[in-house]
Amino acid sequence: MTLTALAITAMIKVIVIISVALLGVAYSTYLERRLLGILQHRIGPIYAGPYGLLQPIADAVKLIFKEDFIPDNVERVTYTLAPVIMFIPALLTFAVIPVGDTITIMGHEIELVISDLNIGILYVFAITSLGVYGIVLAGWSSGSKYSLLGGIRSSAQMISYEIAYGLSIIGVVLLAGTLSLQELVAQQESFFSWYVFRQPVAFILFVVCAVAETNRAPFDLPEAEAELVAGYLTEYSSMKYAMFFMGEYANMLAVSSVATTIFLGGWQGPFLPPVLWFVIKVFLCMCVYIWIRATLPRFRYDQLMNFGWKVLFPLALLNTMVTALIKVL
Amino acid sequence: MASYAAVLIFLLLGIGLVLVTFFTARLIRPSNPYKEKNQTYECGERPFGDSWVQFNNRFYIFALLFVIFDVEVVFLFPWAVAFNQLGLFALIEMVIFIVILVFGLVYAWKKGVLKWV
Questions:
Q1: Average pLDDT over residues A172-190
Q2: CATH classification of the domain holding B55
Q3: Position B116 in a domain
Q4: Beta carbons of A288 and A206 less than 8 angstroms apart
Q5: Which residues in chain A touch residue B94, judged by CB atoms under 8 angstroms apart?
Q6: What domain count does chain B have?
């Protein structure tokens, strides 16, 4: 392929992935409200369109027409930049996720991944960790006590779970011997070669840390509405507020995609086309996210820190060492 | 390099998307700020004191622990990828490295640093 052809395919792939990701983000909010409703014996949103399917669009239109007022004592530059810093890294994760097998369109072989970096896993972890800067800067620049507390809590929580999050993957990397996500998927062709069966402890650790990293219940202390009003979101309104929300849901989607790719066999699966398998797996991961939120009460802050440092971290270290030992023997 | 170029395109389009959204919102939303509305939110009370309050220095100790162990994780990644070729020798070396760091964690633990009051 020539250079222009490469550039054009890359461009098309990027546009398609971004659009699908944004659509996914919008409908994740619908899925969450609807599923939470069902789990709590309520109905959830049903009035906008058939089955309430137009609800995300109605929400978006409402938020874009809202007044965006900036309180007097905020740091304006960081205040405006914070939602962007939260949202962009969440979106960027999708650049290395393989969503399907190679397909052929008009004689061109096209890989269904934007770029198959040979350090894919490292890239994912580097990028997803950047999102915390958005939260911390938002908390600090809002000039409100609730925001500041939310921001600090968030950073402490992130750094406590980041280590176990990174370590949980080392076990998989040890077995795989590669950091490329495409190769990782290729290794999980049969059902029982999925890494969730070969590294069950790592999978559990990954799920717990991922929920903590995305600030979701039961680890949603940065915005704990019962004690901190809305945490770092307190002073935000209109599109900036929406950007934070999109960032959060994009993060959830990204983490679900990463979990699918690393542990659940990626796009591998029988009968159905690979892309569909990928979507189904990500959808199920999102359902689990919401299920966890509906089931578990929020942690207390000391429990949260203890759990991260005294349970998850040693366990992750142990898992890594045991895996390495088994591999040597 | 081509694969990183694709990531760059992704980044630029993402930033462009955000800019377009912010700009569109700016065009169509109302703007009616006044003094009371622009006060910092403090549950309806008149806000008092500085917002940038002091916070507990425990947070710093956790940050310190984090830096040490996060660097450790970064060292583990290349080790894990090349483990097939390195074998038992690499395992022993890494165990020594980790034991030294874990000793630090145990020390912090016994000192009561990890206890959140």
A1: 85
A2: 1.20.58.1610
A3: no
A4: no
A5: 324
A6: 1
> pLDDT class for A226, splitting at 50, 70, 90?
low
For tokens 């530059």, name the residue.
A77
Does some domain include residue B115?
no
What pLDDT is attached to residue B1?
A: 67
Cβ–Cβ under 8 Å, residues B62 and A299: no
Residue B117 inside a domain? The answer is no
Mean pLDDT of A272-291: 89
Tell me the chain A residues in contact with residue B9 when contact means C-beta distances shorter than 8 Å.
10-11, 14
**Mean pLDDT across A68-86:** 84
Interface confidence (ipTM) of the complex? 0.82
Q: Is residue B100 part of a domain?
A: yes
Whether a cis peptide bond, with omega within 30° of 0, leads into A218 is: yes
Per-residue confidence band for A283, with pLDDT thresholds at 50, 70 and 90? very high
Nearest-CA neighbor of A182 among A280, A80, A99, A93? A99
| Interface-testing mutation among A91, A165, A323, with chain B (most B C-beta atoms within 10 A) | A91
| Residue of A2, A9, A12, A14 to mutate, testing the B interface (most B Cβ within 10 Å of its Cβ) | A14
Is A85 among the domain residues? yes
User: Under an 8 A CB cutoff, do B7 and A310 touch?
Assistant: no
Nearest CA in chain A to B95: A321
In a domain, A296, yes or no: yes
Look up the domain containing B71 and give its range: 2-110
State the residue range of the domain holding A153. Answer: 72-328
Amino acid at A116: D
- Inter-chain residue contact A162 with B51, CB threshold 8 Å: no
What's the whole-model pTM score?
A: 0.87
Q: Output the six-digit token pair for B73.
A: 């994780």
How close, in Å, is residue A38 to chain B by CA atoms?
Answer: 32
